[in-house]
Predict the 3D structure of the following.
Amino acid sequence: MSSTMNPGRFAGLLYVVTSIFGFFAMGYAPGKLIVHGNAAATANNIAASETLFRLGIAAQLIGMAGFIFVALALYNLLKGVNRPQASLMVTLIVVSVPIAFLNELNSIAALVLVRGADFLSIFEKPQRDALAMLFLNLHHHGLVVAEIFWGLWLFPLALLVYRSRFLPRFLGVWLALAGFAWVILSLASILFPEVQDKVYAYSQSAFFGEIAFMLWLVIKGAKPPALDATALSSAGG
């Protein structure tokens, strides 16, 4: 069945595409450029690979904007299960988007400092490098704030999947675990930054819940059964 006729497969394909942009922006590009604890090396890497750094910013913007359409596709897929919960899911996703968009200003500020515009000539290069690293650290903390919503939206999604009857219940449980993992990681990063890496490592198995869900949608697809008027009324309650 084609993705145009299968709302689950269509949502899954959108989910995968936006996730690829997200991995590039938050995983690949920073991993190639940022040297933690070394502002000079990081600035030199960005200056030498400015295009890669800019692509990372663009990928984050495209990925987050695209995720709004993922939310709408999932809403169309699951609204028959419970419309208020599906609306809450979309709302929590939409709230996270402006946070992520504004956060990219920190990356842009770091790039301006690395490029050394004329009005920054009063600063020596080590000072500009240190300021660039400061903005990159602020960018990281901005993602930490967004992570709360990356977890919260998974709770209504998990419940919808669990109750749907046309998707496996284990995916709903796994998505709920992923939601808890994101929220715990965000709060741990704020309250106990010294254990952030350990929390992230222990959370990996939970995070795979999202991957399992999107792959299930792409491979298996999902199509909600047709609902009569009575079923639609109960789903909206």
